[in-house]
Design goal:
Blueprint (H helix, E strand, L loop, with lengths): L2 E5 L8 H14 L4 E6 L4 H4 L12 H6 L8 E3 L5 E4 L8 H4 L9 H9 L5 E6 L5 H9 L2 E7 L6 H16 L5 E10 L4 H14 L3 E7 L2 H5 L7 H4 L4 H18 L1
Parallel strand pairs: 1-5, 1-6, 2-4, 2-5, 6-7, 7-8
Antiparallel strand pairs: 3-4
Helix pairs in contact: 1-11, 5-6
Length: 255
């Protein structure tokens, strides 16, 4: 049965999709059968693995309203044992459309329950908000990974996120647990970045992963080629850091 991990932060531009894509790709390369579930209306996780709008006809949006459609919304990726449950901009309307639907917070869980037996890991790339889509992802998950950018305001929104996670855990999904906080876009040349790392470790303690993801040109370039970093430039510092992070994450899963 799959280990289901939501990658969540309501701030945009924190490396959420980059983390989702590369974690899923490296887990896959390690020998696991993995599904990357794109649950962001921007659909960057889908395009970042080479799925153009022309290729994608059925998406997770269709499956939300008819879980029987889920198999039609799963596509192959450039990594052999990594599949993608694709998104499209139509997902943006789902927040409103789900408002009057019965058990609206459980729609994605119904989709995931149909396929979780087929995978070892399902990684959910969430939208940069704490709306109904993200709540659906949290209800469908067992674990939450929080990427936090090494910048001045980084920790401000995380307290609100933690509050949401507590509420979801209390009322909708008691199995939900925070797997950890991943610091991203680190530039060792700036004292501010070092200060953010120290503050995060002081605040979140053992939740913070030892691995810190650096700012890296190759990491930024890879999605425009429709490839994860391990296929685009496996020798880059970005690839190395995501390998280290995935190793650390697996250790937490199996501890």
């Amino acid at each position: 049965m799959a280990e289901i991990i939501s990658v969540v932060n309501q701030k945009g531009g924190v490396g959420k999709t980059t983390t989702s894509i590369n974690l899923a790709a490296i887990l896959s390369e390690t020998g696991y059968k993995v599904l990357l579930l794109d649950f962001d209306p921007q659909a960057n996780a889908s395009s970042g693995l080479g799925l153009s709008k022309e290729k994608v006809t059925t998406t997770v949006y269709d499956a939300l309203f008819d879980p029987g459609q889920v198999d039609n919304a799963i596509y192959a990726s450039p990594v052999d044992t990594l599949s993608v449950l694709a998104a499209s901009t139509s997902l943006a309307g789902a927040e409103v459309e789900l408002n009057n639907v019965e058990k609206r917070e459980f729609r994605l869980k119904a989709v995931v329950d149909k396929i979780k037996g087929d995978y070892d890991y399902i990684v959910i790339d969430c939208a940069p908000s704490l709306g109904l889509l993200t709540v659906n992802a949290l209800v469908a998950s067992q674990k939450v990974l929080v990427p936090v950018q090494c910048e001045y305001y980084a920790l401000e929104g995380v307290a609100q996120l933690m509050q949401t996670l507590t509420l979801v855990g209390k009322h909708l999904n008691p199995e939900l647990e925070i797997m950890g906080v991943l610091l991203t876009m680190y530039d060792p040349r700036t004292s501010l970045n070092q200060l953010v790392v120290e503050n995060a470790k002081a605040h979140f303690k053992s939740l913070v992963f030892d691995t810190v993801i650096p700012r890296n040109v190759r990491l930024a370039e890879a999605p425009s080629h429709g490839l994860p970093i391990i296929l685009y430039n496996p020798r880059s510092t970005g690839a190395h850091s995501y390998y280290q992070f995935t190793k650390e994450l697996l250790h937490r899963v199996h501890a």
